[in-house]
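Batch job 17 of 40 flagged for manual review because the log was empty.
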Amino acid sequence: MKKNIFILLLLFCVYSLSNAQEKFLQSGPMVGYSSMREVLLWVQTKEEAKVHFEYFEIGNPKTKQKSEIMTTTKENSFVAKIIVPVLPDKKYEYELYINQKLVKRPYPLQFQSQTLWQWRTEPPTIRIALGGCNYVNEAIYDRPGKPYGSGHQIFKSITEKKPDFMIWSGDNTYLKEVDWDSKTGIRHRYTHSRALPELQALLGSVHHYATWDDHDYGPNDSDRTYQLKNETKETFELFWGNPKGENGGGVSNKFSWADVDVFLLDDRWFRTPDNYKAGKSEMLGKQQLEWLLESLKSSTATFKLVVNGSQMLNDFASEWLEMFSKHKEEYDEFLKRLKIDNVPGVMFLTGDRHSTDLSMMKREGTYPLYDLTVSPLTAGAVGDRAKDEKNSYRVPNTYFGENNFAILEITGKRKERVLKIIVLNAEGKEVWTREIKASELK
């Protein structure tokens, strides 16, 4: 009896110490990029604190390792980004410690290293979650009327699909009027949105990569003239866990997962004002355009997924909609050079539109280009208002005007890879699917 009481008291003390540390936790932990040899882990505290992680191969606690200890500071919004060494093709459990005390979370904390498959096996199956336009309400600063953000249960639906990683295609945070003109406002908005309770389980067990669009960059439809773009870039890089490396400028980036290369474009940093007539109208800018075309040409990946906030193919003539085709000279140059270089396997993934559809552009003498637009996660959806939009490339029966996300599942042998698109509503119910074979993109 005494032994049982002692064990209960010990367990209570351990739980109390763990629970006590939760008061220091603002949001996370979040899993960032993954490679064969390292993974990035992210966390934000509410005040200065010492944080570290301990991790081990699933089912084998004897392999436990401890990360470096990092002190979060006010200057960096109390964010810590810690890289942990790993071995290829492993799945890990991990634990968060704040001030040397374990902080338990009511959901699994897991990450994985990438597989060393080259010259050994067929490439692994890949499951990718895709979404954008995540609006988190804050009543004191929201516009009057019905709240714009809703349906946060969608994050539970995404988590239940068990993707390897998620691509956030932009408008992942909505800066509000009160935020646009100060570092304080920008940091507050990113902090507030990241702390959404419904989001935490997804952050903790799925790898995350992101680019931005106008709302997490600056004001609505903002361009390269936004005066605080350096501050939003610094904040974006602080709050996301993309890999570091050479890129095309702004927050553009590239990463690989098995036989897939993903190119994260920045459609704001170099963008000229909408309907600009006094000079060359640009969305990507010369530096980024060259980087993208050269990187696509050098890539040997089966699928080359190009992610952008604005739609890449839609040709609907509209004064108020933002899309690549409105920057006609740059748009034409990109399509021409892509065809000249005969780059196989290119497909676009976009957001922004608060509705979902698939566009397909047939090209003479080469394969068709696809643009999968998936939006919104939690922001207001447009319903049927864009259902009859005059986009000459829209694939019939792919329009969906409610909150949604997509799963891209890539399967098959190296020379027989297939990318399956699965669009799902906020409850995780299938809306439509389509398969695209790698052989169709050559």
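Reviewer: the log was empty due to a logging misconfiguration, but the result itself is present. The chain has eight helices and 21 strands. Unflagging and moving on to job 18.
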